[in-house]
Amino acid sequence: MARVRLSVAERREELLRAAVEQIEVRGVSAVRIADVAAVLGVSNALVLYHFSSKEKLVAAAFAYAAEADLAHLRKLLTRRTSAVRRLRAAVRWYAPTGQAKGWRLWIEGWASSLRDPVLRDVAGDLDQQWKAELAEVIEEGAAAGEFHCDDPMSVAWRLTALLDGLAVQMTSYAGPLSRATMLQWTEEALARELGIDHEVLTA
Fold first, then answer.
1. What is the 3-state secondary structure of the chain?
2. Residue-level pLDDT at 98
3. Closest CA to 105 of 161, 37, 25, 51
4. 33, 59, 73, 85: least CB-packed within 10 angstroms?
């Protein structure tokens, strides 16, 4: 059966999805252009036509996956409810669950960013966008009188740092920490940062 001819945008997205899958399976250091090409039944040259190097493919795949997560975060944070409820929903979603495929990709990206300046720039920009989205809602809640906060961005930094650290523990060392305990810790941390009782947060 002949392959359906895809537009440039459709082909690029297909390649990015395949790259994300292969990175999750093989890791950034081991994945090859040939792996992505083989899973789609296309040539290495086609992959390189759209992404001139493995490094650029990996950076684009990382951005593709992270942007999807960022879009979901924005959806949670723009719901028509209180800032406290939106923040709690975001923190609970952000926390790693199940197989944590998304977190494995982030951890792979962080490790590779130490030696790959292209990926470092992409990951750094996306990380700042996450923090900015959380800080904006924290600022809204403070302005509405739901809680008091003089420095929303600092709160966003501390919350994401806690969640990132817990994600590394849960993803890299499966077993020591239950999901229920992790969620309790993150909710308690959020309540402390907002200066409210935990019972108010979970009401």
1. CCCCCCCHHHHHHHHHHHHHHHHHHHCCCCCCHHHHHHHHCCCHHHHHHHCCCHHHHHHHHHHHHHHHHHHHHHHHHCCCCCHHHHHHHHHHHHCCCCCCHHHHHHHHHHHHHCCCHHHHHHHHHHHHHHHHHHHHHHHHHHHCCCCCCCCHHHHHHHHHHHHHHHHHHHHHCCCCCCHHHHHHHHHHHHHHHHCCCHHHHHC
2. 53
3. 25
4. 85
CA angle centred on 170, ends 96 and 35, rounded to 5°: 75
Do 57 and 33 meet the contact criterion of CB atoms below 8 Å apart? yes
Collect all residues with Cβ–Cβ distance below 8 Å to 137 and sequence separation of at least 6: 77, 83, 86, 87, 90
Name the amino acid, one letter, at 160.
T
What confidence tens digit (pLDDT) does each residue in 97-145 have?
655 567 888 888 888 888 888 888 888 998 999 999 999 999 999 999 9
Amino acid at the residue 130 = W
